[in-house]
Design brief:
The radius of gyration is 19 Å and the shape is globular. It has 14 helices and two strands. A hairpin with a 2-residue loop joins strand 1 and strand 2. Helix 4 packs across helix 11 and helix 10 packs across helix 11.
């Protein structure tokens, strides 16, 4: 960790913990978060070894369990929500689901352009959704294969679809696949939440945040959710 990350790694003299300190259940790389009991287990491990996680948890408690449907609907919802507030993304998604019934690749591709545009989607997002629908229809992307794939394989498969980038892939791994040890270092809210949590003046880069998150393995998803949870509490105040 280079000097620019010193403020991220420590709060005063308190170190955030070492990777080797965290209990590693068998096959943790593919462990998933299915219930709040899983979230609580991750929080317990993180707060045991990481002062930063403990401080955030003391302030806001357990983060909620965040899960989305997998496959095409889950990916489509993530695409819809890119660079939008939660409320705006939810409103557009509800309109899109109501306009495209059933919400599946063939129906989306066959829907008149005006219907999809009427949901409030940008031209770029519509292109991405059509590319995604074609990828599922052709078999280049398969929900069942994604379930069994490694994090790197999921990223490579999804990022091969035009319009899909690392952020979308990371969010899919975290919330559609529900992997307990995933992370989205490029997420701006996560970067801002981490900046506030450690008292930095500047927002950490994706590389810096990704490096910091190594100490939270094998519960990086829970750590991210706790940072998001604390950030949302601060914004609500």
């Amino acid at each position: 960790m280079h000097d620019g990350m010193t403020g991220m790694a420590e709060t005063g003299k308190r170190r955030v913990g070492r990777r080797s300190d965290i209990t590693r259940p068998k096959d943790m790389a593919y462990a998933t978060l299915e219930t709040m009991a899983d979230v609580h287990r991750g929080v317990a491990e993180l707060t045991r070894v990481c002062p930063l996680m403990k401080r955030l948890h003391d302030e806001v408690g357990d983060p909620p369990l965040r899960r989305l449907a997998g496959g095409f609907p889950g990916l489509a919802r993530i695409v819809v929500g890119q660079q939008l507030s939660v409320a705006s993304a939810q409103a557009i998604w509800q309109r899109l689901e109501a306009a495209v019934v059933p919400f599946d690749p063939p129906t989306l591709c066959a829907a008149p352009a005006g219907i999809v545009q009427g949901a409030g989607l940008s031209a770029a997002k519509i292109r991405t959704l059509h590319a995604l629908a074609e990828a599922f229809t052709s078999g280049r992307v398969c929900a069942d294969r994604l379930e069994r794939a490694s994090e790197a394989e999921v990223r490579a498969t999804l990022c091969a679809v035009p319009g899909i980038g690392p952020w979308t892939a990371d969010i899919y791994i975290m919330f559609c696949l529900g992997r307990a040890d995933a992370f989205a270092p490029g997420d701006l809210a996560l970067q801002e939440g981490a900046r506030i949590a450690v008292g930095r003046d500047d927002r950490p880069s994706a590389a810096e945040l990704g490096a910091l998150a190594e100490v939270w393995r094998p519960w990086r998803t829970v750590a991210a959710c706790l940072i998001w949870h604390a950030y949302a509490h601060r914004r609500a105040r």
